[in-house]
Specification:
This is [Fe-S] cluster assembly scaffold SufBCD, ATP-binding protein. One of its GO terms (molecular function) is ATP binding. It comes from Arcobacter ellisii. Pfam families: ABC_tran. By secondary structure, the chain is α/β, with parallel strands linked by helices. It has 8 helices and 12 strands. The protein has helices at 44-51, 76-81, 99-113, 121-133, 152-166, 182-195, 210-215, 234-243; strands at residues 4-15, 18-29, 33-37, 58-66, 69-70, 84-87, 94-98, 145-146, 170-174, 201-205, 219-224, 227-232. The strands form 3 sheets. It has a 6-stranded mixed beta sheet with strand order 6-9-10-3-11-12, with helices on both faces. A 4-stranded antiparallel beta sheet has the order 2-1-4-5, covered by helices on one side. Bound molecules: adenosine-5'-triphosphate. Adenosine-5'-triphosphate (ATP) binds next to helix 1.
């Protein structure tokens, strides 16, 4: 039997006094790939931001269980140390903070949490070479400041480096495929597929089926009116791509 990683029950979330999530339920088992689709503004990012403890998102009702613990009791650092990773739609630029230093610190914080020894500079370098080398990802980004002046695609590649190095258990990707060239989409798919070890789970937001063709999701969910309105498999994404939201019974709230 599959082991549960995340269970969201009756989740209500407000941003700036507006209720965005209105009783959402979702369960993710270890090793599963879940895709979240939905019209613009439906609340997809709000869900993953809530799971990452983003300060904008205020939980007013509901329960979230992660690794059999109450996720809402965990602060942002604990969530990261417990293996929750989020790749943002638009990663923030942090001038003055060296990318390599940032990543090494994040890895060592997680290692300390797990009772492991810190990686020194040489070990960190060796690990970076190994991990990025598998996918031909340019390491020069590590020498620059975090996302500072990175192109859209470079920001996404940097998220992949973080993913490979941090090896999280719950990988949340918010439109990691948007704005990427075809080769970069393949790299994203290869990295995602390489992370799948039967235990790590993925919750990814996308508007297109291009990446889904390469990663074969287990479930595709459509978020509408603050809840999961429909769940299917990869074929649901194909149907959506072909027919649009209204034809599959989902009201576009932007219209
Ligand atoms: N900081 C904020 N202040 C005010 N409203 C916000 C804020 N963040 C999000 N919202 C609103 O919450 C709603 C849900 O936004 P969210 O980003 O979760 O949608 P989404 O489904 O990810 O959309 P998209 O597909 O366009 O990325 C939108 O109406 C948005 O305007």
């Amino acid at each position: 039997m599959k082991k549960q990683l995340l269970k969201i029950e009756n989740l209500h979330v407000k941003i700036n006094e507006n209720e965005i999530l209105k009783g959402l339920n979702l369960e993710i088992n270890e090793g599963e790939i879940h895709v979240l689709m939905g019209t613009n503004g439906a609340g997809k990012s709000t869900l993953v931001k809530t799971l990452s403890a983003h300060y904008d998102c205020i939980v007013t009702e509901g329960k979230i269980t992660y690794k059999n613990k109450d996720l809402l009791e965990m602060d942002v650092a604990t969530r990261a140390n417990e293996g929750i990773f989020m790749s943002f739609q638009t990663p923030v630029e942090v001038p003055g903070v060296n990318n390599s230093y940032f990543l090494k610190t994040a890895i060592n914080e997680k290692r300390a949490y797990q009772g492991l020894e810190e990686l020194d500079a040489m070990e960190f370098l060796k690990l970076t070479k190994e991990e990025t080398g598998k996918f031909n990802i340019d390491r020069k980004l590590l020498q620059r400041d975090l996302n500072d002046g990175f192109s859209g695609g470079e920001k996404k590649r940097n998220e992949l480096i973080q993913l490979l190095m941090l090896k999280p258990d719950l990988i949340m990707l918010d439109e990691i495929d948007s704005g990427l060239d075809v080769d970069a989409i393949k790299t994203v798919a290869n990295v995602i597929n390489s992370m799948l070890d039967g235990k790590k789970s993925i919750l990814m937001i996308t508007h297109y089926d291009r990446l889904l063709e390469l990663i074969k999701p287990d479930f595709v969910h459509i978020l509408n009116d603050g809840k999961i309105a429909k769940t299917g498999d990869y074929n649901l994404a194909l149907e959506l791509d072909e027919k649009g939201y209204e034809a599959i019974g989902i009201k576009d709230e932007n219209k």
